[in-house]
Amino acid sequence: MGHYAAAVWDHKAGIEITKDWNGIDQVLLRNPRGASAKVSLHGGQVVSWRNDKGEELLFTSNKATFKHPKSMRGGIQICYPQFGDCGILDQHGFARNKIWVMDENPPPLNSKESLEKSFVDLLLKPSEEELKHWPHSYELRLRVSLTIDGELTLTSRVRNINGKPFCFLFAYHTYLSVSDISEVRVEGLETLDYLDNLSKRELLTEQCDALTFESEMDRTYLGSPKVVAVLDHERKRTYVIEKDGLPDTVVWNPWEKKAKSMVDFGDEEYRSMLCVDGAAIERPITLKPGEEWTGRLMLTAVRSSFCFDQLELQSKGFF
């Protein structure tokens, strides 16, 4: 862990390092206005994101398992190198189940970025045991940053340090906290083609002006725009989800029947969460030796007085 292991609180960077009840490091990012984000080295998972009022913006199940190597149900999970249960690997891949380390050689920040953000850099490399099941040498870097305005950004970089090409899928499995799923709508996905994962991945076209929820939903929207908005009417809050390098968007809510079948999920908790994931899963990403892929997700919570057209116009470019 190098020089990070001795750190407890870095006032300049807005970083505090603590240990969870299993002795695994967690990094707490804070900004001067009181917003915060907490990142666990277990899975490189963002386990909390709070606004300047101290309100939690991410959902975590009350029945979540908090013991390595089981991933925690909630927050933002890093799904790599697969999404779903489609091979010999763990569901959604192994990255969310591994212990990451602090990155001693992260990509450089420019001076403006270092002034405006508190951030942490994490690194995951394959273990000898892992190479037996997925024989590809890679470096997966993750930067989690929190701006002075409370925006949360996750940037992932996958580099092939192998002697041959390999393919992978990727997703930021993002559990948003909502007041009541029946009072939520998603804008920005209208007219798009999607795969209905509840109907053997049947290809359909979205007909609604905005996505609302009355039953279980598990869809992969293909070629989705860089900006999607989740409007929570009761809380008068809108989540703005911006992404780059991630062509797809997954929308998931288990609803009542599936919720009751999940051991790490409360029977009624489907009402207070919604997953909207920036993802690259329809077409696998292929990296040749020495190549690097970058995917980025930025989350902002704003008052719902904004309409989606305004959010589109005001969206920030990533690169």
UniProtKB/TrEMBL annotation:
Matching entries from InterPro entries are given as: Aldose_1/G6P_1-epimerase (IPR008183), G6P_1-epimerase (IPR025532), Gal_mutarotase_sf_dom (IPR011013), GH-type_carb-bd (IPR014718)
Instruction: Could you list this entry's UniProt keywords, alphabetically sorted.
Output: Isomerase
The protein here is known as glucose-6-phosphate 1-epimerase
The highest taxon in the source lineage is: Eukaryota
| PANTHER family xref list | APOSPORY-ASSOCIATED PROTEIN C-RELATED, GLUCOSE-6-PHOSPHATE 1-EPIMERASE
Q: Where does substrate bind?
A: R73, Q91, R96
Q: Which reaction does it catalyse?
A: alpha-D-glucose 6-phosphate = beta-D-glucose 6-phosphate
Task: Indicate yes or no for the key word Cytoplasm.
Answer: no
The UniProt similarity line reads:
Belongs to the glucose-6-phosphate 1-epimerase family.
Give the stretches traversing the membrane: none
Which EC number(s) are documented for this chain? 5.1.3.15
Q: Name one GO molecular function term.
A: carbohydrate binding
Pfam families from the UniProt entry: Aldose_epim (PF01263)
Q: Key word Transferase present in the record?
A: no
